Amino acid sequence: MNHTQLNNVELQIVQFLFEHKKQFVPSKEIAQKADVSNKTIRNHLVIE
Prior knowledge:
Elements: H1 8-19, H2 27-34, H3 38-44
């Protein structure tokens, strides 16, 4: 089994999304809360 730890930014993103799971949150808002760029958020949220 592969166990991967989340880095600090990824953890902040997951926590923020969990707290707002019942509403749409634009990537720009998540970026502000995580203190990173909008592009960073979009890169982390890519679903493959």
